[in-house]
Structures are given as structure tokens and as C-alpha cells.
Specification:
single chain, alpha+beta, FAD/NAD(P)-binding domain, eight-stranded mixed sheet, 13 helices, globular
Length: 413
């Protein structure tokens, strides 16, 4: 049983099926719809989806990212590097609407596993591991609480997100996710392409940042593409107060004044913000890395296992890597409990390192370094931060996150 029909859960189902392992997916909502905004898939995650035969669909639905740039709050360039195929990887980096990716995975899962394998309207209420070696799960209607089904399987994979029911039952005293004081306002705007048309950029510093990248590459009749953007502000308080909705409509007045003057030669950010149809608000949250994910025949995957700040484009990518590692471990031995331990030994330390690095801003800390050293801007970037320092930070994070180019390109299976 896979609990959760998001990106991690559906990828796990496809991977398990490819390994010859029977699987069922249980999703709380009655209808899976293409919700959310944009995300990035790093080359190591695209490699795994390519292995599942999904590269053509990904290229159709998303945009191969050509470069990443960092800017100061004044729009002065700090760092630029090629990404994906342009950087010499064997696989692209892809910017894609989260909902489009989920529906792509859903369609593939239904086609390969059968439509009945994805069981919507099944919200996990409780589970227990039985003496006969099975896991029994009780499902209810999420809206009414009415019983829906009681089912059993040899294994349970909790891929049910940052508010995971599986994780809460394994760690009942953990409490809610931790907020770092930052709020993200996220939206999609139809606008003219910027920079190369395949550029992802970040501007600002630790307390105020703006991120944008295209989700389509071919302009419409008006010369516009869809641009995903994130406006981020950090506040002094660290309790969520009335922001516990986690995915609510954003209020322009809460953040727009802070970005009203961010007009750069290459992009008018206030104009981009004003023309979004819908803006969503998310608190920037994560959880402390766990000492273990697996208990007997139950384990965690994706955000249920390692929720991390959206830094370095790693959230969905790491869930996809989890799915590959889990399927490989289960295919390698008939001892399921041992397989779960092998999966955890491979993935838990790796994701813990990324989670902790993201708390220190990951590769984005170059913007904070410049803010601290040159708060009024600069005329000579190299006098503020050297190219060697910038390169070292970029290389270090790629190694932490598992997408060092040379290492990844050597992988063949």
C-alpha cells in the first residue's frame, strides 16, 4: 500500500510496478486535479523519470531549464551557470507545473497498473501491523469521517506529505512542522519571456527574495509565456498564528509594497506580480531529520520522510529518488524488513544533509553574502565575492544534493 497519490507516491507506484511488485495507491481526495504552481526537476530526478519512459511527456509539459542566475536586490548579477543539458548533463533540468507533473504520473500509473489501483476518496485513519506479517489500514471519507474500507498489504509506504498520517502515528509526539518565519507567495503570470527564455533566477537576500522561471517556452499570440514566480519575505515571529491553512489565497497587500520598486532592466517584477490571476500563500516549513523512517513493514517516503525548505529545487526531486531506491531495495531481497532498512540507510542520511543545508540557504546563500558585504550594491562583483567562492558554493551543494555532473553522468542503470 502506498498512502498518498502525489508525486512521490505515484512515482513509487510506477517504480514498484516496473520491479514486478504489486501495488495499490490510496489518496484522500475524491478527484486528483492539477493543482499547485511550478516546480523544478533536477537532472538526477529526470534521469529516473526517463528510465520510466516519461521524458517525452516531461519535455512536452515543461521547459528544459537552460541557466540559473542569482542577482542582488538591485538586479545586479552575482552568479550565472548553465543547467541541465546546457551544463553537460545527460538529462535535462525541467521546470514544470506541479499539477501537470502529477497528472502525467497519474495517467502513466493508470495505464500501466490499471485504473482500479489508484483508489481515491480513501483517507488513512489508522493502521496496525498484524502478527500474520501484514499491515492493516482503516480508511475513511476525509470530509465526513465515515468508514470507507479496511484493507491489508504486506507493506505500507507513507507518501502522504508534510502532514503525513503515517508519520504522525509513528511519531505521535513530534508536533507540527517548524516555521522559520518566512512566507512564500506563489503564482503564475502570463508575460513576455525574460533573459534567455529558459532562465531561472533568484534575486534578493535571506529576508526578501524573488524567484521566477518559465513553465512554457512558446509564446502565445500576444507574445507571452507562463511564468512561475515566488515572492518571499521573512518575519521576526516564528509561530504560525493564523497561517496554518498552508495553502490559502494570498493577499497582495501583505507583500507587494516590499517589491514595488524591484524594476530591473530585464524584468519589471511589480508588473509580473500585479498580473497574476491567483496568488497562493505558503509558510516556509520543514521538520527535523528523523533517526529512522522504517518500523517493521512500514516506511516513509518524500515529504512524509524529509520535508525540507524549497531551496535548491530539491523537494519533488528527492521524492523521486526515494521511489527508485525503495523499489530497488525491495527487488533485491525477499526480506521486506531488511529491504526497508537498506532503503533507509541509502536515503535517510542523504536527505538529512540536504534538509540541514537548506536551513543555511543552500546555494542561495551567495545572495545573503553579497547583501552583508555590499548592502548598497556594487560596481565590481569580484571585489565583493570571488568567482572561486561562488564556484565552491555551487559545487558543494550539487554534491550534497546528489547531482554532481561527473558522478551522475557516469551512472548507466
Amino acid at each position: 500500500m502506498v498512502i498518498g497519490g502525489g508525486i512521490g507516491g505515484l512515482t513509487a507506484a510506477l517504480r514498484l510496478h516496473a520491479a514486478g511488485i504489486a501495488v495499490r495507491v490510496y489518496e484522500s481526495v475524491r478527484e486528483i486535479r492539477p493543482l499547485g504552481v511550478g516546480i523544478n526537476l533536477l537532472p538526477h530526478a529526470v534521469r529516473e523519470l526517463t528510465d520510466l519512459g516519461l521524458l517525452d511527456a516531461l519535455n512536452t509539459a515543461g521547459v528544459p531549464t537552460g541557466e540559473l542566475r542569482y542577482f542582488s536586490k538591485f538586479g545586479q548579477q552575482i552568479w550565472q551557470e548553465p543547467r541541465g543539458l546546457a551544463a553537460g548533463y545527460r538529462w535535462p533540468q525541467i521546470s514544470i507545473h506541479r499539477g501537470a507533473l502529477q497528472m502525467l504520473l497519474l495517467d502513466a500509473a493508470r495505464a500501466r497498473l490499471g485504473a482500479g489501483v489508484i483508489r481515491t476518496g480513501h483517507h488513512l485513519a489508522a493502521f496496525a501491523q498484524r502478527d500474520d506479517g501484514t499491515v492493516e489500514a482503516r480508511f475513511v471519507d476525509r470530509r465526513t469521517g465515515a468508514p470507507v474500507a479496511t484493507e491489508s498489504a504486506d507493506l505500507m509506504i507513507g507518501a502522504d506529505g508534510i502532514h503525513s498520517t503515517v508519520r504522525r502515528m509513528l511519531f505521535p509526539d513530534e508536533g507540527p512542522p517548524q516555521w522559520n518565519g518566512a512566507i512564500l507567495w506563489r503564482a503564475i503570470t502570463a508575460a513576455a519571456p525574460f533573459l534567455t527564455g529558459r532562465s531561472m533566477f533568484m534575486a534578493g537576500h535571506a529576508r526578501q527574495k524573488f524567484v521566477a522561471y518559465p513553465l512554457t517556452s512558446t509564446p502565445d499570440a500576444s507574445g507571452r509565456v507562463l511564468i512561475n514566480w515566488i515572492a518571499e519575505l521573512r518575519f521576526d515571529e516564528t509561530t504560525l498564528a493564523n497561517r496554518e491553512d498552508w495553502n490559502r489565497r494570498g493577499n497582495l497587500a501583505d507583500f507587494f509594497p516590499a517589491f514595488a520598486g524591484w524594476r530591473f532592466d530585464w524584468l519589471d517584477i511589480p508588473n509580473l506580480i500585479r498580473h497574476a490571476e491567483v496568488i497562493y500563500e505558503y509558510p516556509m516549513v520543514d521538520r527535523d531529520p528523523l533517526d529512522r523512517w522504517s518500523f517493521g513493514r512500514v516506511t516513509l517516503l518524500g515529504d512524509a520522510a524529509h520535508p525540507m525548505y524549497p531551496v535548491g529545487s530539491n523537494g519533488a526531486s528527492q521524492a523521486i529518488l526515494d521511489a527508485r531506491a525503495l523499489a530497488d531495495a525491495l527487488a533485491a531481497t525477499a526480506d521486506s524488513a531488511a529491504a526497508l532498512r537498506d532503503y533507509e540507510v541509502l536515503r535517510r542520511p542523504a536527505t538529512a544533509r540536504i534538509t540541514l543545508s537548506n536551513r543555511q540557504q543552500g546555494p542561495e546563500r551567495v545572495m545573503q553574502i553579497v547583501e552583508e558585504r555590499a548592502p548598497q550594491g556594487f560596481t565590481d562583483r569580484d571585489a565583493v565575492i570571488s568567482r572561486a567562492e561562488l564556484e565552491a558554493i555551487a559545487v558543494e551543494y550539487k554534491q550534497i544534493a546528489g547531482f554532481d555532473r561527473e558522478t551522475l553522468n557516469r551512472q548507466t542503470d
